[in-house]
Amino acid sequence: MGPTLAKLPNALTLARLVMAAVVFLLLSLADLASDPGPARVLAGVAAVLFVAAALTDAADGWLARRWRVITRFGRVMDPFADKILVLGAFVLLAGPQFQIPDEGGAVQATGVLPWMAVVILARELLVTSLRGLVEGAGGDFSAMMSGKVKMIAQSVGAPAIMLIVALAEPGSRGALTAASVCAWAVTVISAASAVPYITRAITSVREQEERRSS
Question: Rounded CA gap, 176 and 98, in Å?
Fold first, then answer.
């Protein structure tokens, strides 16, 4: 294998960061309330880019393992790029640019409320902190099935919400319901996926304390 191919997994990780930045820019520029036409176009393009970025996540990890070119850069930047893409998207989908008038008030067309973005962010910070605690003490804190299910839910839910905004008439009940279902599903799955990690961390800490006391 040539040196160029060996660098491909890391190049895909960097490409994901660039695509994430473009997604954030598009979602920031969208203003569904005052200019719905362009905002829907921007949301649609953001959805396509998000999917492309998510696909690079699967590709770079697979290539790195297959070609045995796992690097320190990849071990740090790959999960960082994943979390930035997902967390940034949900933070922006909860932004005021996606609020539209509704019966004298305003409603979030994406279905993503600010507290939902906080829950998703808190889950990532908690699991990352627990991983550092357990692995720093020599324990095993590898990825679990619940984490993989969470990642799939987030990677499907975020672009699905963007596509709903892009394709449905702003303010239609069907669109609002569909977006809310997606947002709630991602939030609940993200929060629930932390439970096995918390349980594993508690078990690991207890085992370490027992070994020290024995």
Answer: 12
